[in-house]
Amino acid sequence: MYISAEKEQISLPLDNGEHQMKSLPMESNPDSVDGLSSAFGMPESPRELSGPFTDENVVQGREKIQLEQNIKDLEGEVASLKTKEKSLIEKRRTALNKILDIKGCIRVLCRIRPFLSTEKRGIQQHILVESDRIVIKSGANKKGFAFDKVFYQEARQEDVFVEVEPILRSALDGNNVCILAYGQTGTGKTYTMDGTNESPGIIPRVLQALFSLNSLDSSTSLTFSISMVEVYLGSLRDLLAPKPSSRAYAVSRCNPTIQIDSRGSVEIEGLTEVQISNFTKASWWYAKGRRVRSTSWTNVNEASSRSHCLTRITIYNPGEGTGGNAVVSKLWMVDLGGSERLLKTGATGQTLDEGRAINLSLSALGDVIAALRRKKVHVPYRNSKLTQILRDSLGNGSKVVMMVHVSPNEEDVGETTCSITFAKRARAVECTRELSEELKVQKEKKISELEDEMKEAEEECEKLRKQILKAEFLLSENRKILSTTCQNPVDEEEIPQSPKENHANEVLETPKVSAKTVRKAGANSLPRFMDSTVASRQRKSSSEKEVSGKVRSFRSETRSSIQISGSQSNSYSGFRAILKNSNKRPRYGELKNSTIEDAKLNGLESNIRPSSRGTMVSSSDPNLRGSIGHHRRRMSDFM
Ligand SMILES: Nc1ncnc2c1ncn2[C@@H]1O[C@H](COP(=O)(O)OP(=O)(O)OP(=O)(O)O)[C@@H](O)[C@H]1O
């Protein structure tokens, strides 16, 4: 008995000593079930696998060939789907970049604060709003200013976020971006950036969007870290630094200094950088940094920010750059100190000094933006700490959104005019030099076409991702069946498990270990806590023994698990990440810490690093590896 080279035929011995060729019932109907799953799927049941033949060897041989062919086809299918996905992602990125270029690298938006309950409500007559243009009336004078967008008093936080989202995506695509809140004291900068529990502002929304956008895209494995720094009286304060009494404080360098490397990339040496693996964790650290920020009472604002508060999210994308190198991008969100007339705020002593320092650095920021707009050779970055820090995120193709805040009060008309003049310098478009209506329409038409293109690419990507998930699941199941049905039954305990399988089981059974965590980790030998327990071995053993009998139900499970989202889909992408990185085995310490880090919010430990370069550190990136110290500290150091 033998199986012919053409897999569909099998030769069976007859009683008379001759052989008879029989066709095998190969079932590969792409139209049945889910197309993909049946085209590449496992056999429907053990009965179908064995077909009409009873000789176990024939059956095993046939199964093996079919499974191997399935695996080969599925591997090809996954590779080709991934190539398609990559080109669609590139298409979406190009469209987004074009949109941002049309909109302008520096976008200037204006937000008018509503009257507060403590204010005398009047009819706002000195500010007239006409679409995206505002006119300031001061006596008989009228001055008009055009913005990229004007938010009226009724504007909600989500309306503001819609305008910011494209540059967040640009940051995820690998560009440095910067969101700045500018304006007179008490006009709502902190409200726009932080918001309240009921109406979260830009930063909490960005943190949430980072993780949700990232979880949608299984093709990349981004990791994020957060740092917060305050520019106070012309010097830097690390807002996430550990408590002076803590053990970790001793090893950290609490005096951050700004360094620029040969490629013009800015690093803040000694700034604490905390890896964030989920939204809850990110919010916790952000709230901690906010609490430390300097505020004090002034005549104008009860809790006036006395500094510039800069929140940086560093986005690390391994293998996205040329030659598979990592891409590191920065997303800065800056709540600038209030521009103020020192007399009006009633500031004296320390508060007066703070006000002066804020005004000086704001003026330096204005000079830098004006020089960039005019494409001057010399850009005066060095004039303030603020502009030194933001150097690589303001010019050179970075995307900037500046939100200028103004007061609705008539008595603030002087400050409002100053703020708008500042914005005008940044935007360099006055209403008199506005684009003609025809050009505006053309611009909007182009943007809407590009937005459609982006949407289409995203939808296509989404479909492809589902297909990839299906194909990968079927691939792993085919591999599993191949290894169980085509091997001599050996006691489960004796089967040496490959690290791949071991990792996969761990992640699929323990969704809390995120894809990023496992990918980031790498170990020579698996740590003890990753060994399967007696219970899991028993579970695994019995499930594998029953696997062929359960093929049909597995397939229906596949279908439902493919439709899942959120944490479950993360566990699936975790599975992929492990397979991808199974040749890079984690070091015990790294894996342990990453896992602990995921559980940080349960009061355990955290992985924090005072970075000497201000960027993510990864053992897979030779440029970033090594020189940067990892200081792992206990959670209590930061409380
Ligand atoms: N759009 C808004 N809707 C509702 N309340 C707002 C809005 N903007 C600002 N406020 C309220 O106005 C007050 C001052 O706002 P906020 O502290 O954000 O000003 P600021 O510009 O950050 O001031 P400073 O520069 O002094 O820090 C706060 O009580 C805030 O809740």
Features:
20 helices; 44% helix; three-stranded antiparallel beta sheet; disordered C terminus; 17% strand; binds adenosine-5'-triphosphate; 639 residues; alpha+beta; ten-stranded mixed beta sheet
Helical percent range? 40-55%
Main beta-sheet strand count, sense and barrel state: 10 strands, mixed
Which structural category fits the helices and strands? alpha+beta
Tally of DSSP β-strands: 20
Radius of gyration: 30 Å
Bound molecule types: adenosine-5'-triphosphate
Low-confidence stretches: 1-15, 22-53, 429-433, 489-537, 539-639
How much of the residues is beta strand, in percent? 15-25%
First-last Cα distance: 73 Å
Mean pLDDT, as a whole number? 68
Oligomer status? single chain
Number of helices: 20
Shape: elongated
Description:
By secondary structure, the chain is of the alpha+beta class. The chain has 20 helices and 20 strands. The strands form five sheets. Strands 4, 8, 9, 10, 11, 14, 17, 18, 19 and 20 form a ten-stranded mixed sheet that branches. Strand 1 and strand 2 form a beta hairpin. Helix 4 packs across helix 6 and helix 14 runs antiparallel to helix 18. The longest helix has 49 residues. The radius of gyration is 30 Å and the shape is elongated. The N terminus and C terminus are likely disordered.
What's the SSE blueprint?
Elements (H helix, E strand, L loop, with lengths): L1 E2 L5 E5 L5 E5 L12 H4 L6 H5 L5 H48 L2 E7 L14 E4 L2 E6 L2 E6 L2 E3 L5 H16 L4 E7 L5 H5 L8 H15 L6 E10 L2 E4 L8 H5 L5 E4 L5 E4 L1 E6 L2 H14 L2 E2 L7 E2 L2 E10 L9 E9 L6 H4 L3 H25 L11 H5 L1 H4 L4 E8 L6 H15 L9 H49 L13 H11 L5 H6 L13 H12 L5 H12 L4 H15 L6 H11 L9 E4 L28
Parallel strand pairs: 4-8, 4-19, 9-18, 9-19
Antiparallel strand pairs: 1-2, 2-3, 5-6, 6-7, 10-11, 10-14, 10-17, 12-13, 14-20, 15-16, 17-18
Helix pairs in contact: 3-4, 3-14, 4-6, 6-8, 10-13, 14-18, 15-19
The site of adenosine-5'-triphosphate has 16 residues, from helix 5 and strand 16.
